[in-house]
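Hi R.,

Here's the chain you asked about this morning:
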Amino acid sequence: QVQLVESGGGLVQAGDSLRLSCAASGRTFSSARMGWFRQAPGKERELVARITSGGTTNYADSVKGRFTIFRDNAKNTLYLQMSSLKPEDTAVYYCAWGATRGQGTQVTVSS
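And the predicted structure, written out as tokens:
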């Protein structure tokens, strides 16, 4: 059974950086395609970034050039490095592995 636990969220100011982590357990992490989603109040969940088992990445247009998704297969951990944060990045961020997602971590960016 897959379990995902996100961490690293917090309250920051516009322009700051944060790194989110997602610790995975239960299955072979290295062969999984993983993703980060976010959901802001009153908005639909959106895909922020994803990474294949081979390391190919893609990003939402709204975060290109500012966010980087990467993984450490030795640690079974997925990361999202976020830079130049904007107030519109405020949301609960979730990592996902197939149909499984974690409990989420809150990111709040003040202007």
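The longest strand covers residues 18-25.

Let me know if you need anything else.
M.
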